[in-house]
Amino acid sequence: MSTAALAGKQAVIQIGSGGPPPTLWEEIVEVYDIGELPVERAIYDVTGHSASFYRETIAGMYVISSLTMGVNYVNEQYEMLFSKIGEDDPALAIDYYRLLYPDNYYHEFQANVTNVTPVTPLDDRLTYNLTLTISGAITTGTLS
Prior knowledge:
Elements: E1 12-17, E2 24-34, E3 39-45, E4 57-64, E5 66-72, H1 75-85, H2 90-93, E6 94-100, E7 105-119, E8 127-142
């Protein structure tokens, strides 16, 4: 059985510059484990005094939280991302990121680096978990 599903192998995270919106993208990390990218919609209870006795709701704003990924360790990239956690200027702390899949499909978003956690196994490569907390909308597309 063949499938049109995307494989995450060889996905990368790129950081954008020259914008907004970014016009230049630089690969910063190779991703080996893509976490969930949850996009939810806030739901509000607006039930009034109704004779039907059913709850009534309306849809509110989109809620996009964070994306945690396992990435391969390269010292320069790790140091750059780690330094963003300590950035005092909010305008400099947020950047444009692109999660680029091998078939050129992508997710682009603005985010803050909120966690960089090294993983040091005794018998395998060095990696770290990277968490990007997303601000605003996620756009998708395919590079040509």
